[in-house]
Amino acid sequence: MKFLLQYILVSPEYDLQRDEYLHLDQANYLAWGYLSIPPMTAWIAFLIKLLGNGVFWVKFFPALFGALTILIVWKAIKELNGNLVALILGATGVLFSALLRLNTLYQPNSLDVLCWTTLYFVAIKYINTNKPKWLYIGAIVFAIGFLNKYNIFFLLLGLFPAIVVTEQREVLGKKHLYLAMLLGLLLILPNLLWQYLNGFPVMHHLKELAETQLVNVDTWFFLKSQLLFYVGSLYVIVAALYALLFYKPFSEYKAFFWAIVFTLAIFIYFRAKDYYAIGLYPIYIAFGSVFLADILKTGWKRYLQPVAIATPVLFFIPMYNFAFPNKSPEYILQHQKQYKDLGMLRWEDGKDHALPQDFADMLGWKELAHKVDKIYSGLPEPGKTLVLCDNYGQAGAINYYTNKNIRAVSFNADYVNWFDLDQPYEHLIRVKSYTGRDSELEETSPYFHTSLVSDSIENSFSREYRTTIYTFIGAKVNINKRIQAEIDETKNYR
Questions:
Q1: Distance between CA atoms of 432 and 389, rounded to whole angstroms?
Q2: Full-prediction pTM beyond 0.90?
Q3: pLDDT tens for residues 7-27?
Q4: 20 to 30 A from 291, CA-CA: which of 50, 111, 410, 494?
Q5: What Rg, from alpha-carbon coordinates, does the chain have?
């Protein structure tokens, strides 16, 4: 069911999303780290590349991580002695949730949620068995999560004080905990060394993120989003919080109550994006499912079992109509009110737009790539042409869809490290985002014999609408030297 839904929830008229193109291109430049993310996503992208780089495989892995998240919740419910009703309730709650949207995109987020859920499951296993091996397994899971997305560090920030204020603090006196921490450190050490040798680009990324995106995060919007992520299972999560405090079979797990409190408080303090916390909740669906199944198993209450299981499905039905890119842009434009009321039209700039940002980021890429490919093929000596873009989405989409001789680059994101300046360039295809002021010809044409506006993105629903493609033919100056100077300036700024 999970795999089936992930493949039918995206309409064919949408392309991949802008972040996906960057992550897929990272497979061509394998390393122990990148400017914005750790290396795991690139490693998986390399596997996708070996499998043919088709859209089927791009969608397969986030769907797989979503399916494994359901499996871990299932295992957690069994570990908590839940019955069949609890298992079905928990699996249904995780399936019909915001993870369906998250798992449509090839980004680090799907594996991040899986790692959060698995690490919490490992904590349950350790509490139940007191076996040191679970501490070491936890260290491995954390390392995988860390090498996938630094966000998992917030799990530890929330879990540590939760352990300190409960009886589980006794684990702090166990030598195996510190040996496990050492194991985790050794596993993530190559990435830490990469960060050190490259001047800790993650700090620049976080600063840039804080200045351009997190500054627009509203606390109430963040909290409202938390209610919507698992809206069909919200009552299950609330039941879990109650059970962790007052349900006797869960008396050993009070640290989980405080973990969610501390973790949300930390996210709010750092003005985190709402979806950073999605991985926090699946394990609480496991706790809540066990508790509810227990109190609904006797007397007239057992007739409420089908209602409890059906609730996430019933909430999914209206979600199907607006939460996924399965409706055309024209349909969304005609039904804007329901999208706006749910906050889906609000972008990272803090303003409302015609389409949800993720949907707008899935349009116009094939159009851009095909137009660049046509221009490139028509140039004299196209192999001596530099394709320079404004952002990573443009460069990644061109590299994904076009003639493989084209290697578009940008001064944005990781592309600043991927310029090939070993050959002299004679021509320039410049992909320029629309800003309302067109000065590219004025600024660049003096350095070339021929300069012209070749084309632009015409899809008005795309975030790249009006992005212009300029062509400059026959360099009068050394392009490579000027590009190297720009690269050096960009890296010095960072």
A1: 6
A2: yes
A3: 999 988 999 999 999 999 999
A4: 111
A5: 25
Least confident of 21-35, 59-73, 350-364: 350-364
pLDDT score of 155 more than 70: yes
- Between helix 109-129 and helix 153-164 the angle, nearest 10°, is 30
User: How high is the mean pLDDT of the chain?
Assistant: 92
**Is the model's pLDDT at 449 over the cut of 90?**
yes
Can you say how many angstroms the Cα of residue 90 is from the centroid of all Cα atoms in its chain?
Answer: 23
Given this model, what pLDDT does residue 494 score? Answer: 61
**Three-state secondary structure string covering the chain:** CHHHHHHHCCCCCCCCCHHHHHHHHHHHCCCCCCCCCCCHHHHHHHHHHHCCCCHHHHHHHHHHHHHHHHHHHHHHHHHCCCCHHHHHHHHHHHHCCCHHHHCCCCCCHHHHHHHHHHHHHHHHHHHHHCCCHHHHHHHHHHHHHHHHCHHHHHHHHHHHHHHHCCHHHHHHHCHHHHHHHHHHHHHHHHHHHHHHHCCCHHHHHHHHHHHHCHHHCCHHHHHHHHHHHCHHHHHHHHHHHHHHHHCHHHHHHHHHHHHHHHHHHHHHHCCCCHHHHHHHCHHHHHHHHHHHHHHCCCHHHHHHHHHHHHHHHHHHHHHHCCCCCCCCHHHHHHCHHHHHHCCCCECCCCCECCCCHHHHCCCCHHHHHHHHHHHHHCCCCHHHEEEEECCHHHHHHHHHHCCCCCCCEECCHHHHHCCCCCCCCCEEEEEECCCCCCCHHHHHHHHEEEEEEEEECCCCCCCCCCCEEEEEEEECCCHHHHHHHHHHHHHHHC
- Evaluate if residue 230 carries a pLDDT over 60: yes
* Whether 358 contacts 17, CB under 8 Å: yes
Token code pair at residue 366:
């094939």
Distance of CA 438 to the CA centre of its chain: 33
Q: Alpha-carbon distance 74 to 117, whole Å?
A: 11
pLDDT given at position 212: 60
